[in-house]
Structure formats: structure tokens, C-alpha cells
Write a structure and sequence with these properties.
- The chain is an all-alpha fold and 145 residues long.
- 83% of the residues lie in helices and 0% in strands.
- The chain starts with a helix and ends with a helix.
Length: 145
């Protein structure tokens, strides 16, 4: 049973965390308005996927502890970083993400890409902050200090 829970936990981490590592590259990729709108649509879907994976990660992590994995300090540190990451995503990045999301419903115009790049410049540093926390969590999970 424990092995199945570990497989679920690791798979969910790959799907949930893995797709967020594409954010900085996808967001800077579009060269046209159509491409930008496609990327913004993907951003919304990826955000939904990340939220769903959070519940599975937390649930499977708790199951591993219940099934006998010792509750060690690195687990507490990982959980703390996880909640900091989610808080930063929900609070710090929310305004910039919503600003980008609103662009999907805006009319096309000659300044669309200029506005996209301006809003993206505000959003990308927040994404990198989240990435740094993701990497710290992954290192804690691998190294188990």
C-alpha cells in the first residue's frame, strides 16, 4: 500500500510542479497576439492543474506518514515551504495573473503585444520566486537532510 501512495505522490509532484517549470518559457514565447492568447489560455489550465495536484500531494504525503514514514524535520520544512509557495501564488502573483487573464477578453489592437510584455514583466519575477521554492522543496524531498 505504501508503495502505491509513494507512486501517486511522486507522479502528482511531477505533474503539478513539473508543469510550473514551463511557465517562464511559455509566457515569454509568443510573438503574436494569437500566440499570446493561446499561452494565456494554457496558463489558466495549468493553474487549475496545479491547484488540483496540491490536494493530492498533501493527501498522499499525509498517507505516507500515517502508513509509517517517520515524521522528520525535512517534512515539516517541505510543508512550510509548500504553504509559503501557495500563499505567494495566491496573494503575490494573483493581481499580475488576473491582469494577464483579462487580456484574453480584450479586443485586439496594435498595442496588445506591448501591453502583454509589460504585464508579463511584472508577472515573471513572481514566477521565478515560486520556482525557487519549488526547487527547495524538491531538494528537501531528494536529500532528506
Amino acid at each position: 500500500m505504501y508503495s502505491i501512495v509513494v507512486i501517486i505522490h511522486v507522479s502528482t509532484a511531477l505533474i503539478g510542479f513539473g508543469q510550473t517549470f514551463l511557465f517562464p518559457f511559455l509566457l515569454q514565447f509568443p510573438r503574436s497576439e494569437e500566440g499570446a492568447k493561446t499561452v494565456l489560455g494554457l496558463l489558466g489550465g495549468m493553474g487549475t492543474l496545479a491547484k488540483c495536484s496540491d490536494f493530492i500531494l498533501l493527501g498522499s504525503g499525509m498517507c505516507m506518514v500515517i502508513l509509517g514514514y517517520p515524521f522528520e524535520p525535512w517534512i515539516i520544512a517541505s510543508l512550510l515551504l509548500f504553504f509559503i509557495m501557495r500563499f505567494s501564488s495566491a496573494v503575490l502573483s494573483r493581481k499580475a495573473a488576473l491582469s494577464l487573464w483579462e487580456m484574453l477578453n480584450q479586443e485586439s489592437g496594435p498595442y496588445f503585444m506591448e501591453e502583454y510584455r509589460k504585464r508579463m514583466a511584472l508577472f515573471i519575477p513572481k514566477v521565478w520566486f515560486t520556482q525557487a521554492i519549488n526547487i527547495a522543496i524538491i531538494l528537501l524531498m531528494i536529500l532528506k537532510p
